[in-house]
Amino acid sequence: MTVIMNILSNVCRINRAVIMLVNEETKNLEYIHGVGFTGPIPEDIKNYKVPLDRVSNILVRVTNTGRPEYVPEVRSSTLRKENIVLNRGRPISVFVVPLITRSKVIGVIGTDAVDRQGVPKETRETLEIFAPQIAIAIENARLYSTLQKRMTELKRSHALLSRAEKFSFLGNLAARLAHEIKNPMTAIGTFIQMLPHKYDDEDFRKDFYNIAMEETGRVNNLISELLDLVKKRKSCFESADIHDMIDKMALLLSPQSKAKNVEIIREFDPEIPRVKMDSEKIKQVILNIMSNAVEFTPRGGTIRILTRNQPQNGKPADVLIEIKDNGKGISGPMLEKIFDPYFTTKHKSTLHSGTGLGLFIAYQNMRDHGGNIEVKSEIDKGTTFLLTLPTEPHPEVVAGEKKDVHADT
Predict the structure, then answer these.
(1) Which of 87, 178, 232, 369 is least surrounded, with the fewest CB atoms within 10 Å of its CB?
(2) What pLDDT band is residue 343 in, cutting at 50, 70 and 90?
(3) What is the value of pTM for the model shown?
């Protein structure tokens, strides 16, 4: 408003002027800005409002008709002399021009003169010429202000939603932890209660030892995964050879794959460069997916690991890693939930057990790199995981500014 008034003052002779805007909610014409008053704007002027149905008021009348009005002699006119604006300024003449944009009057500019010459004709003509541009500027400013408010509200709503999700996440986490720990501890507790009476039974002691070791292993595995999930560790990006990393993970899993006579075939693209990544996090991703593949691939089956460059427009190519197995596959409804925390297919089978956090952590780790992880599967044909990893992560990713919903949990 100040800029608008300064421009008007430079191009035409204005003594005093006020801008009044329509408030659609209250159906009033309200003071929004003024210039030319001696000292600060009086409070009664700043609080000045006129109902839009008061047609005797020149400001309202111009708003309703969309036509400018000029009163060259206030004293002899029908204007109410006790009006706050007229009473304060005691003008000789007044000129009011509508502010119209998109065929709609959004307010008015009123100016006056205190000498007998009145508001000059050139001033009136200039105001009429500038009024539509002023209306557009004001409307754009209002829209921008509204957009800012809505963005602030959206951010606040997003923050509240994120907080609610985190509380829900923590609640589910606590429930899952309690459930997963309670079962093995109950089994161990039962054996401990029976131990004094059956200590001399060698078979009982052997069973107790095996079950206790198995159940404590489950608890330890769960806690390790939970710690990996919730601990805050800033990514440490360094250049590394992705093929060398895959080879090492295959070697690590070789006892399990050889025990099932599962062949791991690697088809690497030699053109793939070294990748800037957090090696520990990517190792965790690849190891998790490969171990799942070995676990669910039938005896004598095959796992194929392929790498290739995936070109990007104007940016360094991404590395695409495919890990395919020929296991039983995953059904559609289960496939949609596979990256959800606590979701697991392993408890459906007596041969497999899991916490449901491994793939969720893998997803988080890929997001930490600005990458992505997808899965495709067909029943009785196998499952394919596709990892997309940037060779040069975005600077914001390296700085740790891009986070997933649960990244701070």
Answers:
(1) 232
(2) low
(3) 0.46
